[in-house]
Amino acid sequence: KRHKFWETQPVGQFKDKEDTSLPEGPIEPPTPLSEVKQEPYNLPSPYEWTTCDMDSEETCNEVYVLLKNNYVEDDENMFRFNYSKEFLRWALRPPGFYRSWHIGVRAKASKKLVAFITGVPARIRVRDEVVKMAEINFLCVHKKLRSKRLAPVMIKEVTRRVHLENIWQAAYTAGVVLPTPITTCQYWHRSLNPKKLIDVGFSRLGARMTMSRTIKLYKLPDSPATPGFRKMERRDVPAVTRLLKNYLSQFVVAPDFDEDDVEHWLLPTEDVVDSFLVESPETHEITDFCSFYTLPSSILGNQTYSTLKAAYSYYNVATKTPLLQLMNDSLIVAKQKDFDVFNALDVMENETFLKELKFGPGDGQLHYYLYNYRVRQELKPSELGLVLL
Ligand SMILES: COc1cccc(CC(=N)NC(=O)c2cccnc2OC2CCNCC2)c1
Questions:
Q1: pLDDT for 223-253, tens place per residue?
Q2: Quick check: ipTM above 0.85?
Q3: Does the annotation count 145 as an active-site position?
Q4: In sequence order, what DSSP letters do the residues of 268-318 get, joined into one string?
Q5: How would you list the strands of the sheet with 79-81, edge to edge?
Q6: 382 CA to middle of ligand 1, Å?
């Protein structure tokens, strides 16, 4: 009964978990393109497939509204991700993207968008193999259509469309345990606006703590400490690419970014992604880099506030500046930009700064998965160099 769908898919199965004799790499070979199913999978009769053109203001708005009302909530159903339209356009149109991988489901009668799933192409290195993959994200079924088994057919359809582009692997995350995580991450939160976080129930006042003591505890300087700390600009793309490629090479799983990827994913885009670097005042060498993306959450059922402004740690590289100091500067600029909270996973070297910078553990986990690619044994989060949106 459990995982009826996932037991039919080329993913690491729980029963194979201990079998270290199984080789690392693709689980199934590619299918000849002529043998890939040419027509879409069948949906239940009231529904039809649609391709969502995110360049269309109208369609982008339909996707935004569907996600705003029906996408992922925290375990206590107090918050729901509220990805902005400009964020969605950024997330779904990286170099080489396929419009056909932005898949919607409409009710035939009303033409209402009731479900969504996406893929974007990425080159992901697993140890020393660079693999073309699809990063799957934004799987969302309208609350009123849950348990109609729409998700399995949507996953099969995006898989079919990825196969049509001769790509046979994928990467995705979920808050639930499916067969079989390549790693399981803890998430952590650093309060920037503790009064609001306590008022909305995101945080609780610590024992023997007053509000004024709590505000003082999380207070940050008004400006970054590191000399040469500045916003990334287009002219920095080659140097940041070199810095990032070298840094990510230490992890077992990481994106294989080129300059076009860095230009898309890491150049600052207002209210979407912020990135900063340290340019040595003496040598003008770029020695460090930090970035975070903007993902607000709707606050469900609070009279005073409707939105939680959250920054999510993205890619950070410290080669001269201590990582602790670099990340504290990241917190400082996030506070300057009026974020309420700064979130991070315990991936890469993040656990070296989380406690010291006053992050508190979140109440959930994020599991990472690869499709049709077996990893010899489960990774430690510190071996993972991949952050999905
Ligand atoms: C605070 O508002 C929330 C609204 C919905 C869910 C959650 C909890 C949660 N599930 N958080 C995460 O998944 C998370 C926590 C820290 C860093 N990245 C994260 O998820 C990212 C990456 C995966 N796709 C969603 C965004 C919180």
A1: 999 999 999 999 999 999 999 999 999 999 9
A2: yes
A3: no
A4: -BTTTEEEEEEE-TTT--EEEEEEEEE--EEETT-SS-SEE-EEEE---EE
A5: 79-81, 297-299, 307-308
A6: 19
Q: Ligand 1 within 6 A of 297 CB?
A: yes
Strands 359-371, 129-141: pairing is unpaired
**How many CB atoms are closer than 10 A to CB 176?**
6
Alpha-carbon distance of 316 to 248, in angstroms, equals 10
The pTM of this model reads: 0.97
In DSSP notation, 69-137 reads HHS-B-TTSSEEE---HHHHHHHH--TT--GGGEEEEEETTT--EEEEEEEEEEEEEETTEEEEEEEEE
Overall residue count recorded for the chain in this entry: 389
Q: Model confidence over 120-166: pLDDT tens digits?
A: 999 999 999 999 999 999 999 999 999 899 999 999 999 999 999 99
Q: Looking at ligand 1, which residue's alpha carbon is closest to its atom 10?
A: 74
**Ligand 1 centroid to 175 CA: how many Å?**
8
